[in-house]
Amino acid sequence: MKVLITGTSQGIGKAIAELFLKNGHEIIGIDRLESGIADPLYTHYVCDIREKEKLPEIEGIEILINNAGTQNEEDIDINLKALISVTEKYAFRKGIVSVLNIGSASGHTGSEFPEYCASKGGVLSYTKNVAIRIAPLGATCNSLDPGGVLTPLNECVINDKALWNAIMDETPLKRWATPEEIAEWAYFLTVTNKFCTGQNILVDGGESINYRFIWKD
Are 186 and 16 in contact (CB under 8 A)? Predict the structure, then answer.
C-alpha cells in the first residue's frame, strides 16, 4: 500500500516507516529534517507541516499516519493544527483505507505540560471527528496514544537516574516502550485492523493508572 507518514526523521516515525518498508509498502515521509532512510520504496519531502500551502501534492494515499509532533515548541500549532491540515489535505479521497493519529497518554490524563496536553487532547477528539466523516469511504481512523517511549526527545529523563527511578515507580510494567513496539501497534491499527474506528488506543505500560507525571525541572 501507499503510506504517508509525517515525522520520519527519528524516533517513532522512523520506526514506523522502517516496519512498513520491511513489509513491502511504498512510503512517503514528510519531515522538516532530512531523513536517514535509504530504501527504493521510500520518498522523503523536507517540509514544515505548519506551512500547509507548501505541503506536497501526493496522489493515491491509502494509509495516512500523523506522527509529527513536538513538546514545548508551539505544541498546539504543530501537534494539532498542522495534523488537521495534513489530514484534511490527504485523507478524504477515494482509495483511503486508514488514518492513524499518534496522540499521547497525556491527552487522556492531562498529566503533562499545559499546551502539550491540550494539543494531544485535541488530537483524541479530532480522531473521532475524522472517523465519522471518513466512514462513508470505508476507512477507519484511530489514535495511538503512547506513554513513555525510548526516543531522543525523552533522553533528559532517561539519563537522569533519580527521575528515571521515580518514573519506573509509577509504571507497573517497569519499563518504557521502544519505538519498534509502537510501530507494531501502528501497523496493526492501519493494515490488519478493518473494523475498529474512532478509538483512542492507550499504550503506556500502565503508567496512566497512577496519574502522576514526573519530569525534569
Answer: yes
What's domain 2-149+178-209's superfamily in CATH? Answer: NAD(P)-binding Rossmann-like Domain (3.40.50.720)
In sequence order, what E strands does 67-180 have? 98-102, 140-146
The per-residue pLDDT for range 142-166, each reduced to its tens digit, is: 999 999 999 988 899 999 999 999 9
Instruction: Please name the helix (run of DSSP H) or strand (run of DSSP E) that holds residue 68, with its range, or none.
Output: none
pLDDT tens for residues 23-51? 999 999 999 999 999 999 999 999 999 99
Q: What are phi and psi of 192, to 5 degrees?
A: -75, -45
Separation of first and last alpha carbons in the chain? 44
Q: Alpha carbon of 192 to those of 63, 133, 141, 164, 186: distances in Å?
A: 12, 21, 13, 34, 10
CA distance 75 to 125: 16
Those residues with Cβ within 8 angstroms of residue 71's Cβ, 6 or more apart along the chain or in another chain: 113, 116, 153
Q: How far apart are CA 91 and CA 63, in angstroms?
A: 8
Q: Look up residue 12 and give its three cell numbers.
A: 517513532
Name the packing angle between helices 11-22 and 179-187 (round to 10°). Answer: 50
pLDDT level of residue 128 (50, 70, 90 thresholds): very high
Residues 6+ apart with CB under 8 A from 118: 75, 76, 80
Domain coordinates in residue numbering, the chain: 2-149+178-209
